[in-house]
Write a structure and sequence with these properties.
alpha+beta; ADP-ribosylation fold; 116 residues; 3-stranded antiparallel beta sheet
């Protein structure tokens, strides 16, 4: 299984479970859902989710995603997985809370570390 990750607000994920598919805001704005590899999660969290609460990480089996996935370069020169369409929720096999530690910084959850 090839796992990719997506950070979102818990409320958005709860709505997606009721609808059967997940749409990130970026799908409407940019045409795709931003995802990351395990080594990129903390970079993404620091850049886009600093000072936000009620976040979750979606663990996604990329082999089960029905939409197209493209690995494309970002400004930092790394390739990031992008999902070009709605995410079918049956591709998500684990959802965990993602909050900052007491020091205010995000820490890589053990569930992610165990996959590396």
């Amino acid at each position: 299984m090839n796992t990719i990750f997506h950070i979102t607000k818990r409320q958005q994920w709860e709505q997606a479970k009721n609808l059967g598919t997940y749409r990130a805001d970026s799908l409407d704005r940019e045409g795709f859902i931003h995802c990351s590899k395990s080594t990129q999660i903390l970079k993404v969290a620091k850049r886009f989710f600093d000072n936000q609460k009620e976040l979750v990480i979606l663990f996604i089996d990329s082999d089960k995603i029905q939409a197209e996935i493209r690995y494309e370069p970002a400004e930092i020169g790394e390739l990031f997985p992008h999902i070009y369409g709605e995410l079918n929720i049956d591709a998500v096999y684990l959802v965990i809370d993602f909050e900052t530690g007491e020091d205010g910084f995000f820490e890589l959850p053990p569930e992610v570390i165990n996959l590396e």
